[in-house]
Write a structure and sequence with these properties.
310 residues, TIM Barrel, single chain, alpha/beta, eight-stranded parallel beta barrel, two-stranded antiparallel sheet
């Protein structure tokens, strides 16, 4: 474990403006270019097609643990690739596995290619659910080897982290092309134990996941004895804006359910970053709902609710 160095800057100004769906950034040193939205699980193919048409070129598929949940994404990619015309070279497809070393030899990598007509290769392989140093280092070597030989086309490697200290270590090593971390209204701790410790120069992208996990619904708001317009009720795209307002995050893993939600996401990003008081309000709402037991049991581990912010 590398002792983290404090670089400061976590309390700096938010990102303005927010990135657009059509923006592109390098995925580590791979030569691949990805947008700020990585599309994950969706119910049906139409959402994948709408996402691509709106400018999203980055897709995320599980190859083992969550395989059934990604059926809509797989069918959507298949429909998208059926368009032909060089579409395959316009998109970046990442596959995540929760298996341990040597992961890249797993049959599931071949299965996802075989399951999606026209996919032909994977671009990015991701170690899912990294929870301890051994899990990180045991998978880093075989994944790096897979990237070196472009195993099944892979040009980039990444990992999703359930502990932010490990993400700091990985960002410091700068051997991954992308890191997925969790920062949301019920888990804002990255402000103090992740963002300040990130090296000022790094090539690996940092994307957020579980951005909307603790969305407060209108029903929850009523249960809390609150109501609009006296109490602002953020919508789903606002939770994506919450994450992307942090300049340390290069993008988010998102799962819009319909083409209309893709449009809403694009429209929300055009509004720019949240104001600091809006961010604090959202944290307060999720904390209050969590303290009242309104989220599924065992999920909420956020900070205790306090009085309404300003």
């Amino acid at each position: 474990m590398i002792a983290p160095a404090h670089y400061g800057g976590a309390d700096g100004p938010p990102r303005r403006p927010l990135p657009r769906l059509t923006d592109r950034q390098p995925l580590g040193k791979s030569g691949l270019q990805v947008g700020p939205i990585c599309l994950g699980t969706v119910p049906g193919p139409e959402t994948v097609l709408a996402a691509f048409d709106a400018g999203i070129n980055f897709f995320f598929v599980s190859v083992d643990l969550h395989w059934p949940l990604y059926e809509g994404t797989r069918r959507g990619l298949e429909a998208l690739l059926a368009r032909g015309g060089g579409v395959r070279d316009e998109i970046v497809v990442g596959v995540v596995s929760y298996l341990e070393q040597p992961w890249f030899q797993a049959l599931q990598v071949h299965e996802v290619i075989n399951a999606v007509a026209g996919l032909e290769r994977v671009d990015l392989i991701i170690a899912g659910g990294v929870t301890n140093p051994a899990s990180l280092h045991s998978r880093l070597e075989p994944m790096s080897a897979a990237r070196n030989i472009k195993f099944r086309g892979a040009r980039a490697i990444g990992a999703s982290f359930h502990h932010r200290r490990l993400a700091v270590e990985a960002a410091t090593l700068d051997q991954l092309d992308i890191l997925y971390v969790r920062y949301n209204t019920a888990h804002p701790g990255a402000r103090t134990d992740l963002f300040p410790f990130l090296p000022p120069v790094r090539t690996g992208r940092m994307f957020n996941f579980k951005s909307t996990m603790f969305k407060v619904t209108a029903e929850m708001l009523r249960s809390l004895g609150l109501s609009p317009p006296q109490c602002w009720l953020p919508d789903i795209p606002d939770y994506y804006r919450f994450a992307l307002s942090r300049p340390e995050l290069d993008g988010i893993l998102a799962s819009p359910k319909t083409p209309e939600e893709v449009e809403a996401l694009a429209a929300a990003l055009s509004k720019g970053s949240l104001l600091p008081e809006e961010e604090e309000h959202m944290i307060w709402l999720s904390s209050l709902a969590g303290a009242r037991g309104l989220f599924p049991r065992g999920l909420f581990r956020g900070r205790p609710a306090t009085a309404t912010p300003g």
